[in-house]
Every structure is written in structure tokens, then in C-alpha cells.
């Protein structure tokens, strides 16, 4: 439906017919529009609110408030609804306001819209940039078919502490891999630009360093040097800017004593001045307001601080709309800053093509694509590649005619397969593990829950229903532990009695990770540990299928299970994809992107650590006055980059094109990889560097390249990495990005532990 909006029509005269409007034309258009806007209207553009029906953390907006804001042009965007009728109505109302400025519509599309892909941490373990890009592309197509044009993704926070529940939303602990994934996601969402109607603006979050929250407690303080931030955390955000990300979201945490939302260094000096980002920055939900609790000032003060720091849009705080005009009148905010923020938001709308057609994303005619068979097929392919085989004594793959007992609270739990941030989807329609296996099995399959999630009913209620109790007023909690523990176990043991093999489906419920879901332990929930022990006692082989959103401590499981397949939360097609791997139709190829510790006390534990002055072998026993523990070795249980296959791969020695090079030179590293088994398999070949002596200390290893290849049985391939001394750079103490001449170890291998090394000299 089109509306008559005369002023807009007059302004549109300025837009030429060509579909790629130049920056200059955009400039003219926006300047001309802004000339007529009052200061209130400009501030209104900086206001983002939750769409009606969506309750935000502090329910700051009611439907009526939104309406009033819309009618007076005091709203720049809405988020949190994909109800096209509501969104279209909101757009119609926005266009009736004096300057007829369209809204854009955001949504937390994190790993798929209605077709749900694996949670981001799982996706990252595929190390497959094409598939990751494809998942974002499909998410964008589905979102835009339902009116959404802005997604709050990718989340690129590096996380090294699995206590932090949001580790599930990112790509793990490595900045280089995180950067590659950030670029792939931005490409997937934004495509070549916004000319068509199937791409969305990406929003890179949470800027910055949110993943380094002290003690893994969500929203907690972040304290680190700029040098560390630049070397170890910031690259993925920068890579997203290089890929042309349209927007960023500031994070909840502080950095250098200033909340990120009001941090001039992050939002202006780094993001814009240094990386050249020219889009807009939105706050996280209520993050401006939260600067009061951080101890920075009252709402008026923190709003002015955020604006001046380079924040353009206020999500849910009512700080900008509520106080900026007053601050301007009192000389506590500058009109130029308001103008700049408003301009950036209008430019984003212009680039999306909303001034040309505000209903562009309601007229795509692509509704039938949403949740389509083609999208589900892609979800299955991607989910199959996002699983990590952590142990296998030969029990996997299962024979298709095997008699299998599928036991555990995750065996028949479709909505648990969706993972965190999947509220736009059909949770109950996700394929459960048991259904996926039944589709493939040619033998008998028995199924039993076997145990509660947790022994403690209060904990079970909090974890399973806490989120709904928080968001849905009057939510009725279903009965907790409706069946007795012994009854569940007896049923499971009876199922196991007639089986050749047990598949134990255990893990963390989806609401146990994600936002506001930090933990102080990393073990499996107690009731499920007991179940595993009882299953082990049957003497039958046990394959553990692990649903989780974070690394867990699995020492007992590693010793006692016959196989462990980490399946995270794989989304819509989870059960099919898990069955594909369990029965060997797909050879697993995922590799960890986060270290799995042996015990919680080792945390934070990450592969790219420094050496210390008293290093100690990873597996060496305790020695006094070395950097180690009395009661545990230093090694992780499963290292970064680790993952098994149903075939074997043999690596040759890395070979350099030249052992000595000069600054600025290029060089190659080649390594021969052979499939030594009887099945075709995919393998991610990894390349790490170690700068032996630097002007400041360097990590023992840093990932600098990787390649995922597929080898037939017996096939060998020489993998050649093309590098230059630019790949050996780091941020020195003076915060210069340099390659310091000297010797470097260049390592290649199947994971960060089992590498072979060659020496490179840079002169
Ligand atoms: C989260 C963001 C999210 C926003 C909007 C916040 O609580 O930190 O990741 O995009 O809510 O839903």
C-alpha cells in the first residue's frame, strides 16, 4: 500500500532514477530533509523502542507511548516484532508525521529467523565460511520477507570464560577466526548492498569487549590494557567494519573505567577515526540508562555523555528523547552532535532505500520462502557440519540395523534443539534427536527420558521456565518433576536392556546459557551425571550426545563414555543432522573454537596464552615454583581446534618457500595432508605462528590461516598458505601495528596442540 506523502515526493525529486545512489546524492537528500526538521524531530530519529507486544527488560514503552511517538515523528526505529501487520501499521503512522520519515525495523535474528541454524558457537565449529555466510543469507531472506530490515547480529565478542553464558552467541576464543566469521556473516546479511529487497543491515555487537566480563558474570566489569584489547579482542569488530557492516551496538560493560556506551575512545577514536566506519551505533537495551548504575551521572548527564562519545541511537532508555533537548538548552549537549547522529540514521534509511519505498520489505512476495524445504535442507547441511566428535573408540558410526536405546532428557526435546535466541521460530517443530534417528534407523529404537534435568526442583524451574516467568505475565509453570526419579531410571534401563548400544542425550538446557545465564560450575547437571553412571553400569557401549552452549568439564565422561559427540544446539534440523553423523551418512568435521578445560579452576583457559617466565609443560606433573597447579595439569581436556573424524588424517612437515625473508615479503607455507582411512572426510588444516622474541610478550601460538578441505580415502593434498609479514604483525607497547624482525615458529596441524613446526627468519 502506498501513501501520499507530498513533502517526501518533493524530496524524492532529488533522487535520480539510477538504483545505486551516490554518496553525494544521499548527502544532498539528507541535508535538504534535515534543514526542515525541528530539533525534537532530529532527536526523535535517535530513539529506538521495542515494538508493542514485546516486553523489554524494564518495559519502558507501552503501545500507546509508541503510538504517540510515531505520530509526532519521535521514533526512529522499532525492534522486536516480525508481525508484518503491526510493522506496516507502524510505518504508515510514521509516514503521517510531519516529515514522513520511514522507520526501520530491527530484530534479534541471531542464528536464523524462522529456519533456525546452529547457535553461533556451533556454527563457528564448522570453520566453513561459505556455510556460515549462507546461514546469514537465508536468515536475511526470511527476515526481509516479513518486514525486518535490521538484524542484531553478528555477535563477535571473543570469549575465553565458559562461565559466561553468552559464549554461546559468539565464535569462540580466537580473534582471527572470529574476524573471518564476522566478515562472512556481514556478507551474508548485507550481500552486495541494499538494492534488492532481501538483504538486511547487520549490527555488530557488543562493542566492545563484552566477552571479557570478570569472573564470567554477565554485565560485569572489563579491565584490560588497550594493547591486550587490540591484540586479543578487537580484531573481529574491525573485520566487520572492513566488510562494510552498517551498524554497531555498544556493549553493557565498561572499558578503561568508562561504560562502552559512553566511551569516546571506542565509539569515535577507534571505530570511526581508525577503522573508517561510517554507519550508526545503537546502544544495547537500556544501556544509556544503565550508565547511572555504573556511577557516571543522572539520565541527563549520561545521555549527553553517550551522544558526545559517538552513540547515535538509544535503545529503550528514553535518555535521548527525554533529556537531549534540555541538555542542548543548558549548553550540556551540542546541536552538531545531534545533527551528526540524526544524519547517520537518515543515511542508513536512505541506503536501505526506505525513502524510495518505505514498504519495500512488505512487498517482497517471498513469504513462501520462509521456513521452506530449501531452507530446511540448508539448515540440515550446516547443522551436520557444526558437530564436534570429541571421543570415539570405534563405536561410531552406528550400524543402521543396530538396536539403539536413546536415553536422556534431550532425546525427545524438540524445543531444546533451537538454542538461545530463537524466539521467532517454531520451537516445537525442531526435529528431535529421536525423530531424526528414527528416520534413518533400520534397526529397533527405544526411547526414554531416563532422568530429570536437575535433581533440585527449584533449579529446574529457574532454568527451564525463568525466562518465560520474566517475560510472560502470569505464566503458568508446568509441574516440575511430574515423574519420579526411580521410575524414569527403571524405564531407561529397560530400554537399554534390549539394545546393542546406548545413545545418551544429555546436556545443558537452552536457557542455561545465553544472556544472563552465567554459571559457577561447568559440569553436567547432577541428575544427568547420575544417569550416565547408571548407563555405564549396564556394560553396554554408551555414546554421549551433548547438547550445550558452552564448554563443559567432561573428565569423567571422557574416561567412561565410548564416544562423545558435541552437538551444541543445532536448530530446526537438529535431529536429522545428528542422525546423519551418528549413522555415518555425514563424516563429522567440526573442530572446537573454544578450549574445553579439565576443571573449572583452570578457567580462563585458552590456547593463545602467553608463556610466563616459568612455563611448564602442558602435561608435566606438578613442580614447585613453576607456573602450574598442585592438583591439575595445565593441559585442557580438549584443545582449541580439536575434533575427530571417522577417517584419519596424516600431516607432513610444514615447508616454507624461503626460510629467511625481509620485512614486507610474501612467503608460502605448504603442508601435505593425507586421508589415511577408508572414508572421505573434511579436514580443517590450521596454521599458527609464534613470534619467539618481541619487544613485548607474544602468545605461544596464534592462528593465522586455515583451510577446510575434503579428501577421498587415500588421497593426499598439498595445502599452500600464502602469507606475508603483514600476517606476523601485532600491536606493540606504543600501540603500533608492526612486524618485528626476528625468528618465528610457523606451525601447521589438525588442532592447536598437535602441530609440526618450521622456523622462519624475518630480517
Ligand atoms: C542484548 C542484545 C540484544 C538486545 C535487544 C540485549 O539485552 O544484550 O544482544 O540485541 O537486548 O534484544
Q: How would you briefly describe this protein structure?
A:
By secondary structure, this protein is α/β, with parallel strands linked by helices.
Contiguous uncertain segments of 5+ residues: 1-20, 53-60
The N- to C-terminal Cα distance equals: 67 Å
Separate helix tally: 22
User: Averaging pLDDT over every residue, what do you get?
Assistant: 94
Quickly give the structural class: alpha/beta
Number of strands: 27
The percent range for helix content is: 25-40%
Question: Strand order within the widest sheet?
Answer: 9-6-5-4-3-2-1-10
Instruction: Bin the strand percentage.
Output: 15-25%
If you compute it from the alpha carbons, what radius of gyration comes out, rounded to the nearest whole angstrom? 27 Å
Shape: globular
Name the hetero compounds present.
beta-D-glucopyranose
Oligomer: single chain
**Main sheet characteristics:** 8 strands, parallel
Descriptive terms for the model:
single chain; about 775 residues; alpha/beta; eight-stranded parallel sheet; 27 strands; about 30% helix; globular; binds beta-D-glucopyranose
